[in-house]
Amino acid sequence: VDQTIQAMEEKSQIAPTGALLFELGFLYKEKGDFKRARERLQQSIRLNPDSVEAMQQLALVHAMMGHYEDAISVYKEIISRHPQESFPYYAIASVFSMKNETDEALGWLQKAVDRGFSDWHRLDTDPNLENLRNAIDYPKWKERQMR
């Protein structure tokens, strides 16, 4: 992986593209180098501002770094461009759950469900939603959704 990253870094110095910088950001994220991942993803977005995929990865990196407000901001930007997509609402719910702000998380999760999110297995297993699942209101909310 390191040799691949090095070769891609050299290529990005000569002919940077949004796709190349996205791939570098993704590789750095997988390697656990979140600072470099964030830098490359931000560069990718500057070159290709319509890349929702790069924005999602950037938000994920922010969350992995504990920069929850930055993650939420990026997800809200995705929502402003694609308001009917359920995923960014779900992702914001996950971030609020990680912050242990379960009321806020539940509100965003409801917005995701309202837009078609229906992966109940994911809700039951996503470690980022553990705080939400342990909240007093969650079982009643889920029961209402399943009817």
Describe what this molecule looks like in 3D.
It is a single chain. The protein is built from 10 helices and no strands. The protein has 147 residues and is an all-alpha fold. The N and C termini lie far apart (48 Å).
Strand content of the residues, in percent? under 5%
User: Rounded to an integer, what's the Rg over CA atoms?
Assistant: 17 Å
Number of H/I helices: 10
Biggest sheet statistics: none
Low-confidence stretches: none
Task: Lay out the secondary structure.
Blueprint: H1 2-14, H2 18-31, H3 34-47, H4 52-64, H5 68-81, H6 87-98, H7 102-114, H8 120-125, H9 130-133, H10 138-146
Helix pairs in contact: 1-2, 2-3, 2-4, 3-4, 4-5, 5-6, 6-7
Which terms would index this structure?
147 residues; mainly alpha
Brief write-up:
This protein is an all-alpha fold. It is built from ten helices and no strands.
